Amino acid sequence: MTIESFLLKSEGEWKSMRSGHSLAFQQFEEVISQIKITILKLTNSKVSALLSSIPLQTGIPTTPFRMAWNAESDWEPDDPNQVSSGECILIPIKQSESNGLLIRSVGYAESEQAISKYKLLNDDTFTLSTEYGQSVAEERIWFISPNVRCRSSVLKTISGNGILQTSFSSEVRKLDLNG
Amino acid sequence: MTIESFLLKSEGEWKSMRSGHSLAFQQFEEVISQIKITILKLTNSKVSALLSSIPLQTGIPTTPFRMAWNAESDWEPDDPNQVSSGECILIPIKQSESNGLLIRSVGYAESEQAISKYKLLNDDTFTLSTEYGQSVAEERIWFISPNVRCRSSVLKTISGNGILQTSFSSEVRKLDLNG
Q1: Sign of the dihedral defined by the CA atoms of residues A83, A88, A93, A94, in that order
Q2: pLDDT tens column, A121-151
Q3: Res. A174: pLDDT tops 60
Q4: Minimum Cα–Cα distance from B124: chain A residue
Q5: Is A178 part of any domain?
Q6: Does the residue B177 lie in any domain?
Q7: Rounded to an integer, what distance in angstroms lies between the CA atom of residue B46 and that of residue B43?
Q8: Based on the structure, what is the number of domains in chain B?
Q9: Per-residue pLDDT at A79 exceeds 80
Q10: Which of A153, A23, A20 is nearest to A74 (CA)?
Q11: CATH no. for residue B58?
Q12: N or C: which end of chain A has fewer CB within 10 A?
């Protein structure tokens, strides 16, 4: 598995079930969302703009993509059907066959640019580590069939072993039955 | 990481938050449970009885343990506080440093003996694959800190790519504050 083949397998529309676990309070969060992943060209103007907005990095940009999402969360008790949506541009910068950086125009946990480190494990799991201020998010994404991906994440304090929250998503490809 | 050190790290009492995803119906299940893992001796009479009840396997029995659990599920709408509990004996049979079998006196998905295959990946993830009739359960367990484990599972059809359900647990060690 290469970063390119992993992303080509990921392209398309997905329906995601996500469970969040707040460990200190033992609270569950449930979110159903739509995710759309589209591979972009390196010549795309938003891709060039993002690349030129960050300090120069060692490595080769490859397979940029757009991720758009649309979520319904149960988190806000006053507004159970609150919908949040957004999109961002992501650009892998390959530093070896299995390692590199992932530049993201907007982060998940905070609304700012992020530079993550990625690694492809030898069982084809894609891992991502991102620092946000005083915390670190560690994600794992793996395919359990061509049309089902799993994603787990852990948010921990940067200094040590404090685990703030975990989450898990099951993502099922939306098949185009008219295709 | 060896199977022995993985199990020694796992010994103790854990509080588990588990989310189940039923993919076809997009239903969430939430369960909070207590789990207690106790390492047993190979000379324990229940261990010997379990070993002699199965066909002879290639490999070396090591680090048998008891797992007891006590769960509260939200699954039954009529009885939201339904409690289910149980315990089983498990015996790893080591076939190489990273591979082997796990004999279990009672399975999770069905109430019968099970023989699983385990593997320790090079990032210290413990994986388990168990066949139950027409389905296969694949589990992954990994430590994200000395006192927090994550566990993901996938139940799929034995014949191919049909994914029946997924689940994810965050397990936090219950510390003995009296010391």
Answers
A1: positive
A2: 988 999 999 998 889 999 999 999 999 999 9
A3: yes
A4: A121
A5: no
A6: no
A7: 9
A8: 1
A9: no
A10: A20
A11: 2.40.128.20
A12: C
The end-to-end CA distance of chain A, in Å, is 27
Domain for residue A175, yes or no?
no
| B176/A76 Cα distance (integer angstroms) | 34
CB-based contacts of A13, cutoff 8 Å, min separation 6: A34, A35, A36, A37, A173, A174
Residue B179 lies in a domain: no
**CA-CA-CA-CA torsion sign (B3, B86, B38, B165):** positive
Query: What is the pLDDT, as a whole number, of residue A179?
Result: 46
Contacts of residues A155-163 at CB distance under 8 Å and 24 or more positions apart, as own/partner, are A155/A109, A156/B144, A156/B145, A158/A131, A158/A133, A158/A134, A159/A134, A161/B145, A161/B146, A161/B147, A161/B148, A163/A23, A163/B144, A163/B145, A163/B148, A163/B172
Helix (H), strand (E), coil (C) string for B26-90: CEEEEEEEEEEEEECCCCCHHHHHHHHCCCCCCCEECCCEEEEEEEEECCCCCCCCCEEEEEEEE
ipTM of the complex: 0.87
Cβ atoms of residues B102 and B90 within 8 Å: yes
pTM for the complete prediction? 0.88
Residue with the bigger pLDDT between A142 and A161: it is A142
Instruction: Using the predicted structure, report yes or no on whether residue A108 has a pLDDT greater than 70.
Output: no
Domain limits for position A105:
3-170
Contact residues, chain A to chain B, C-beta under 8 Å:
15, 17, 19, 21, 23, 26, 28, 30, 32, 121-123, 138, 144-148, 150, 152, 154, 156, 161, 163, 166, 168, 170, 172
